[in-house]
Amino acid sequence: MQEFDHIQSLWQSHSVEVKISSEEMLLQAKKEVSGIKTRSLLNIFGMMISFAALVALLIFFPFTSWTTQAGLSIIIIAIAVSTFILYKDYKIISRNDFTQHPKEFLSQLKIYQLNKFSIYNKLYWFYAAALCLGFILYFYEMLNNLDLWFQIGISAFTIFWMALCATFLRKAYLKREKERLDLLIEKFERISSQFKEQA
Amino acid sequence: MEQKDQLFKQIFDTNSKKIFHLCYGYTGDEDSANDLLQETFLKVWQNLDKFRNKSLISTWIYRIAVNTCLTYLRSEKRQAKDELTDNIIENRPEEFSEKNEQVALLYKSISKLEENDRLIITMVLDELPYNEIADISGISEGNLRVKIHRIKQKLTELYNQHAGI
To answer: Where are the alpha helices (DSSP H) in B28-140?
Structure first.
């Protein structure tokens, strides 16, 4: 039969090791947030590359039909507007550091989540509609000289790709992003709640 | 800001080991204990300017850690599981010894206690003065003494039961 003193000496003999320093700990907290910022930046960067490529195409290719130029212009404008909206959204979370201004950061993270949801729901359909119109006008001249089967193939692939982006990919992205942000918001709310209660 | 950084570093170096042990005793799992340690010290960092020197800073940090432990496990819908404490042996086969087995049994026994009791006994095992534990847990010292006596008995009973003594 062991007594409590034995248990206490056992506890005290079991040395635990803290494997992290104070600096590493703060850095780790910042890293969780920077993952979201990096993904958002990559998204913007990708859009900017598409924008530059299409502008170059419009400037350096001698398109003869006005429909091609109008089509490309519509796609370019749609991409430019979307990139601007994404950049505005990125600025919301890049403004504050969670370790320095937790309250502000948390409220901005919630706004960011709502915005993201709105961008990939309501605004996405405007973007998709503009791209569809742009592609129809663009293909009017471009596909004209091709064989009928090529015309059907390219059109079918474009429709398939846009439908895939609008349904499966969009929903999967939204779901994953929501889970990530929910987890982060829940953690930061938990961290902030104790002092909110005591205030 | 640099002054705050230095103060925080000093506070972290002085208190992190004890807080980690508290979290480890509560969860019986190193990863969860690390998460709790991080959350506790993030709260300390963010609220350092709110500390008014009414109590010892260690008491203040313990209070934060206790609250963090209680809310963390509830929100994660986790419970300290037997297999977690078994990991203490399984993860370190090279360190396997009778003593390690006894330590694992101790964590297993602690995990069978109620959430609040787990935290109180961890502080008792770390030899925190009773008045400090009372302050941290928000229980009067008289009631705490009775409670601690009961938890000590329960823990000893559980330990002996698991050890087959």
So the answer is: 30-47, 57-75, 82-90, 98-111, 115-125, 130-137
